[in-house]
Amino acid sequence: MPHSRPMPSVGWRCLELRIPDERESWRLILRLDLDAVVIVGVFSKKTRETPESVIRACRNRIKRYDQVSKEDE
User: Fold this and answer.
1) CA–CA separation, 61 and 24 (whole Å)
2) Of 24, 32, 29, which Cα lies nearest the Cα of 54?
3) What is residue 36's predicted lDDT score, i.e. its pLDDT?
4) CA–CA separation, 61 vs 27, rounded Å?
5) 17-38: per-residue pLDDT in tens?
C-alpha cells in the first residue's frame, strides 16, 4: 500500500499519510492548500477502515479552518 492515499470522504485535496511505528500504525489526515499544509487529524489505526468519528471530526476542523481563514482576509 502506498504511504499516502486520497481521502475524498474528508474533503477536497485531503490525504491520509501512513506512518508505521514499532508498535502501532499512525495516520495523519491533512489537506494541501496553496499556502499551507493543514493537519486535521492524527490517530492510531487499529482497523482496516477509518472510523466515521475521525472523518466527522476532520470535516468539522476543515470547516472551522476555512471560516477562520475567510475572517482573516
Assistant:
1) 25
2) 29
3) 93
4) 16
5) 999 888 889 999 999 999 999 9
Residues 53, 38: Cα–Cα separation, whole Å? 19
For the chain, give the DSSP string: --SEEE-TTT-TTEEEEEEE-SS-EEEEEEEE-SS-EEEEEEEEE-SSSPPHHHHHHHHHHHHHHHHHHHHH-
Cβ–Cβ < 8 Å for 14, 29: yes
Q: Which three cell numbers stand for residue 6?
A: 486520497
CB atoms within 10 A of CB 35: 5
Predicted structure pTM score: 0.86
C-beta of residue 3 within 8 angstroms of C-beta of residue 20? no
